[in-house]
């Protein structure tokens, strides 16, 4: 059986996309200046140490009070929450295109995701610029962990500033998510505003985003930055199994000190150029697997299953805006623990299958096993589904978690098939939906074969179904599979007013041209708005090149406001780089 990266474990990568952070070499694209760099004139393009530039013989270190707040929500629940406060200094290194930046007196309050270490946040970084003085990357100490790289990159990228002439100008700028167009406008002599909307190009491997942001800068008489405040909002265009991923980032800078740098400070800054990495906007791709293992070990350090389970129980009674955040953090900490220590995942499965487990505990244990995304976790969930002792809620939660996992084999399919025969309607429905998802995983991994073919079983059940409620459930499961064998059954179901909306949406993953033809026909000719809406929702997952021109035309013809909203969403998704 082949394995893929866990779907739930991939959520931090979506958060990374929203807050910025992938490997980017200096040659990828130019960006703008960091706040301190905006005060300088032209700088040499060469990143190597060069003779002292005559315009930078007495560089000034400028110190700013800084705050940063970032939030990532998944399905409306807070997934990552970070607040940083401290001071950051900027020092141009004479004769180079580099600026040293370092955080001092920093405090950090973070929950969810991977937490930066204070030691790594305090390490000085180098901001590299091109011949026009625009930021092209951040150079890190090789020891800096990925969460710290992400946070520091977010900070300097959000407040970057490209100088221009006149009352208004535009520039292509770079952050950790991609290249975007920035529009600048002067307000009087000392205020400059920047508007950011969308991305011209995303960095390789990141989920497409929609984004909007504003930056307000005040400068002194010489054009050097005195303060800056930035706010950005981003949303991933692809939904996860848990819902939409959206984030906000707010950064403020306020000048609090300035003074001529000493020769010792300049010499120390110069030495950094010899041991810091090449300019990037986050950790290199090649470090991800090792970095993930390291982050899991750091996150799991000092924790065990009993302690995490007790902490989850203590969340009862917390305010609604706090309980989701706290539980998400505990679930993902447990997921890291299960990846580091598979035996803990096996133990969690035993506890989940126990007859005395509460509903809240079942939610925690099943969610943590899903977050782990491992074979051990999948089999622990499967054993709960087949256990005679397990509570019905534990079995329901296990079915949901198996639908989210990228692990599918004979054991998980057999367990879900048993759940699909349950007398409990909810467990029957959840297990059937999960079988469709498992079928898609099996097909992607090349593991479908004789005796392991959930789609064949789902089709047989559909043929023998005697009521529309059961047929509707099976159509949805077949839609999850994306198997071409389901196409004729789906097309036949469109004749039923009761089944047509589910059938239209079930076409979204079917990888044949006939599915697109049928969706076009439904979107164009169906007299039922709910069917047209389902057809456009399915188009969200189809090929943009063939659908986008047609959607633009359809937008002008559609009259139903809810269907129009769906078309707008699909166009925005397909128009993203």
From TrEMBL:
<keyword id="KW-0732">Signal</keyword>
<dbReference type="InterPro" id="IPR001747">
    <property type="entry name" value="Vitellogenin_N"/>
</dbReference>
<feature type="signal peptide">
    <location>
        <begin position="1"/>
        <end position="31"/>
    </location>
</feature>
<dbReference type="Pfam" id="PF01347">
    <property type="entry name" value="Vitellogenin_N"/>
</dbReference>
<dbReference type="GO" id="GO:0005319">
    <property type="term" value="F:lipid transporter activity"/>
</dbReference>
<feature type="region of interest" description="Disordered">
    <location>
        <begin position="279"/>
        <end position="301"/>
    </location>
</feature>
<feature type="domain" description="Vitellogenin">
    <location>
        <begin position="311"/>
        <end position="571"/>
    </location>
</feature>
<protein>
    <recommendedName>
        <fullName>Vitellogenin domain-containing protein</fullName>
    </recommendedName>
</protein>
<dbReference type="InterPro" id="IPR011030">
    <property type="entry name" value="Lipovitellin_superhlx_dom"/>
</dbReference>
